[in-house]
Amino acid sequence: MKRPYLFLLLGLVCLASCSPKGPYAVTNKYYSDRTKGFVKSIQLQLPDSLADSTGKQIPSEWVGTVNFGIRKPNFVIIHFTAQDSIQQTLKTFTVTSTQVSAHYVIAKSGAIYHMVNDYLRANHAGLGKWGSVTDMNSCSIGIEIDNNGSEPFNDAQVNSLLALLKSLKKAYGIPQANFIGHQDFAPKRKPDPGPLFPWKTLAAHGFGYWSDDVLELAPDDFDYAVALKLIGYDTSDINAAVVAFKRHFVQTDIKPQLTQLDLNVLYNVLGKYNQ
């Protein structure tokens, strides 16, 4: 073998041995480097120099308290990906141009991809409102399930989701009422995880609520708009709120009108949220 080719071969071998491994090595490194920056921010102990309206410097001093802790999530928001494959979703969440992410993604095989540390803020919820919460990204964990929005969620996905939710609920003490869908938080914008999602199964395991099999009639003076608001829905667009509620708790009909059965379900579910 001629010497130039030998050097070229050795160079390629060296380059390959030094290159990061795996399809997500570059994004994993980016994640690692950025979290190091967050650590530096947390370690800052003094604010920028402060001055009053006359320009006089205000004395400041760092005094470390012994009573503090790390912020932790208090909600779980469930989504469907509305994409064609897990590979497409992982790509969407690993390019900066999309500016969207989630803490976890569950593939059709049941495999779970953890993409953002639970204590960090992922860009999954966006604009919306649930009760008094408007910045859901700052207090929630986002879980995306590989599903195009028109197909059932398979057993492998549901089993993995239940295991993950059990772990999250135990780790962070998340209340049963605080497992909701993207549609619940953002009824004006989002339809996911949709009427095919097994909310009844989740409720049976303590993640969110579902109506009882036997329902009382809603009172004649039952105000459904007030009830939806008390549960947490943003009722500024009442039709959107009704549809979001029905996608979650009725599922057989998602029209923006409430039948007597829908009212009975709403009345029953309201009692669970207020217990």
Please explain how this structure is put together.
The protein is α/β, with parallel strands linked by helices. It has helices at residues 3-18, 25-43, 86-92, 155-172, 182-185, 199-204, 224-231, 238-249, 260-273, and strands at residues 75-80, 104-106, 112-114, 140-145, 179-181. It has 2 domains: 69-194, Lysozyme-like, CATH 3.40.80.10; 209-275, Muramoyl-pentapeptide Carboxypeptidase, domain 1, CATH 1.10.101. It has 9 helices and 5 strands; from the N terminus they run H-H-E-H-E-E-E-H-E-H-H-H-H-H. A hairpin with a 5-residue loop joins strand 2 (104-106) and strand 3. Helix 7 (224-231) packs parallel to helix 9 (260-273). The protein is globular, with a radius of gyration of 24 Å.
Provide a short characterization of the protein structure.
This protein is α/β, with parallel strands linked by helices.
